[in-house]
Amino acid sequence: MPLHVACRVDDANKHEYDINQIIFHKGKLYSAADDGKVKVWSPDLKFLQEVQAHPCSIFSITANDDTLYTCSNDGTVRSWDLNSLKEKDFLIKDEEVEFWKVKYDQGVLYVGDDNGNMRIYKNETFYGSINVAIPVKDLVVKDNLVIVAKDNDVIVTDLHLQGKKPQFGVTATIVGRGPLLLVDDKSIFMSRDGRDILVNVIGDKQHFKQVSTIAGAHDMIVNGGAAANWDGSILLFTGGWDKVVKQWKIENDSLKADGSFAVDFVVNSMVDGAKGHIYVAGSDGHIIRLDV
């Protein structure tokens, strides 16, 4: 069945300005936008609740079992009760930097800023920081590999957190840019011009091998993407400034076009939900759910 809109947020409850990130966590969709708000939605995009988390743009959000984390260009990282959205803590306040990315993975919170520094927290306790050479616009984690990107390069860092302080070393610098996506043994990102899709296999020795490229996958820069393995079928979804969401199928390390859908807004962020559901968010607070 081709991609189609199953539901959409209503105009009365949507964000006032552009949405920068959405995550699907524990059966709910969380959105963060330039209006400084976090909004929570049911799987069918019914409005549930919101909080004015920051006075200005929220660049990124992430969550664990009971806490939502937000970061902003106001120089703060804050934590919120996942269910009530009541404030828990001012985790960081540093007016000298903008915090661009937060990512929670396996008990560790990673916080990246516009100076290329990444702060690491265990159980909300500061553990240490490293410099990853580029401003951290996007960040994903696979085992002991931390992968970051901005607009020109993808930096792969081998990071170990067992000692008294982080032990790390850069293992690869790859020409490319976000969005960064992981699915199974594959890392997917864009070329520097933001229009070509690059598929890499992460080998046994953590070596990145490019196995597939789709040149000119989009007519304009891709801002968001989602990758999912649904019952052994690996699907990739991409969207950006051309206002088109495209679906791709990954088989035998190759990427094949598998459908598309034109939306009426610039796509900034995408995430997969339940099987067959892709959430798409972007300009002027719009969010839709596309069903496959």
Protein architecture, described:
The protein has 292 residues and is mostly beta strands. The protein has one domain: Methylamine Dehydrogenase, Chain H (7 Propeller). The chain is 0% helix and 63% strand. It contains no helices and 28 strands. Strands 1-28-27-26 form a four-stranded antiparallel β-sheet, with no helix packed on it. Strands 2-3-4-5 form a four-stranded antiparallel β-sheet, with no helix packed on it. A hairpin with a 3-residue loop joins β3 (28-33) and β4 (37-41). WD repeats lie at residues 51-84. InterPro entries: JINGUBANG-like, WD40/YVTN_repeat-like_dom_sf, WD40_repeat_CS, WD40_repeat_dom_sf, WD40_rpt. Pfam families: WD40. Keywords: Repeat, WD repeat.
